[in-house]
Amino acid sequence: MNGKHAAKFHSIVRYARKRIDNGDWTAGTRVPSENQLREQFGVSRMTAKRALDQLAGDGLIVRVRGAGSFLAGNSVRSSFLAIRNIADEIRESGRRYSALVLRQREVAATREVARSLGLDAGDPVFHSMIVHRADGRPVQLEYRYVRKDAAPGYLDADLAIETPNHFLQRCCPLTEAHECISAALPTKVQRAALAIDALQPCLAITRVTEWRGGLVSYARILAPSSRYQLAGKLHFSSRPVSGLRLGR
User: For residue range 228-240, what is the model confidence (pLDDT) as tens digits?
Assistant: First the structure.
């Protein structure tokens, strides 16, 4: 997918996510077809199909052969998203934050990374792999990929002291993010980095961030479920507030 087609692809995905977040589409709603998206966004049918496939892969829609695509009945999403710095969360829990930087270099974007960042597979991106620790105990393994044009100084940042989140907020304040949370069993390498056994499930958090409409980073975070939890509190008389809680 070239840059122009990738931009159109992301426009469709962002459009759909906003309709879902705003409550315009509810469970069971039939979403626009490939042909309707093709006409609305001026794209090829293949690009429209890829966008719907992406939404289906994220669990947001269900595609029914011969009937169309519908908003998934089990899709629960909040229109308010708070992304906090893991270092702040750890310190607020009364523990000492530290980071082990396992990788910080330029790499060729895989298809998944390229698709998420609006690039072509093989394009160069900045990459870091970091273990975030509380009192020396791993609580997150973060893989992050950053567009070179969004944060040119990323490889020079001291990520053992300044988290990727803090660095990106400082150089290009993030204005939008899309996040997906699921469960995952870590690989042998990931278990070693997190110091957990083979039976320990993890939260898998995938996040794409933007700044003023431009894509910035793609991150995949693994967190042992016994050490890291996601929590939230809803105020029905006001807007929802999402938060994070570290497991002890």
Answer: 766 554 445 444 4
At 26-57, the pLDDT tens digits run 767 788 999 999 999 999 989 998 888 888 77
* Same domain assignment for residues 55 and 100: no
- Angle between helix axes 3-21 and 34-41 (nearest 10 degrees) is 110
Residues 217 and 189 in one domain: yes
pTM for this structure?
0.63
* Pair (47, 103) in one structural domain: no
Q: Annotate 217-229 with b (16+ C-beta within 10 A) or e (fewer).
A: bbbbbbbbeebbe
The larger pLDDT score, comparing residue 96 to residue 91, is at 96
Instruction: Tell me the C-alpha distance between 203 and 185, whole Å.
Output: 9
Note whether residue 81 is domain-resident: no
CATH of the domain at 12: 1.10.10.10
149 near 171, Cβ under 8 Å?
no
Neighbours of 106 (CB within 10 A): 11
Between CA 63 and CA 31 the distance in angstroms is 10
CA 37, 40, 44, 45 torsion: positive or negative?
positive
| 49 and 129 housed in the same domain | no
Q: Are 90 and 246 in contact (CB under 8 A)?
A: yes
> How many structural domains comprise the chain?
2
CB atoms within 10 A of CB 28: 10
Is 79 part of any domain?
Answer: no
Rounded distance between C-alpha atoms, residue 157 and residue 104, angstroms: 9
